[in-house]
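Reply to dn_fold:

You asked what the input looked like. This is it:
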Amino acid sequence: MRAAHLKMATPSVFAGISSPKLPLAIALRPIRAGQTGKGRQAAQVPAMSRYEARPLAHGPLGTPRRSAGMLVTLSGRRLPPQRVAVVAKRRRPAAIPKGARWIHVDLKQQTLVAYEGDRPVRATLVSTGKPGTATRAGLYRGISKVRLSDMRGRTPEPYVAEAVRHVQHFWLGQALHGAWWHDGFGAVRSHGCINLAPADARWLFAWAPPPLPEGWRGILPAAADPALYVLIEKRTPTGPVAAPELKLDNDRRCIDRGADAAGLECPFEALEGAPQQVL
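and this is what came back:
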């Protein structure tokens, strides 16, 4: 490979919010004071740096309050919705046991919230699959955790990423993992996996069950073991909603056969075998 085709990658320093007060807004790009809006609305728009977060006012169902199309913060200021990602609280589906550790991913807003039972403990931005390699919506139970993995794929073009850290698989070739090669969180970018900033991936890996024993490279939770529940939706619903069906699609077949019946990549590399993973 020619040197002209290479560039240095600087990992993102972004990190999510611990013990978040939901709903909240995270700026996707810098906002200048009074930048968007008219008259009094513009005067109420505060300056925000990229990735800065502010709690939002909300109604009885937790829906963020709006005024003349602008989001309203708890302090009464106004935010342009096209410049922020809104992180809203999601009711725990009945299929997720009380007290379990689970995450909710909103594909529209590109956000992730981690819960312990009904209590949100961390909120952050993610990058999910691009059109053509979209992240699959559904409710899953985590099927593996791998501390370090090389990843590769064939669609839409061949690619290889080495030393991907803090990988947690939930369905076939899709996983949660750190992404050291970009700082574009809050927008779709991946080949189907859920990209996290390195600090968030490290936190989530340590927090999610089952714990990885010291010195181990990876772990496959048994059916009776605690595991992370992963709920992925096109958008965060408000009010009473039907609990989605828990999906455990093809989760064990790659352990034995190395690929699923359709020839897709495996959800994780066999711990002593060659990597088979998308990102």
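Confidence is low (pLDDT under 50) at residues 248-278.
Hope that clears it up.
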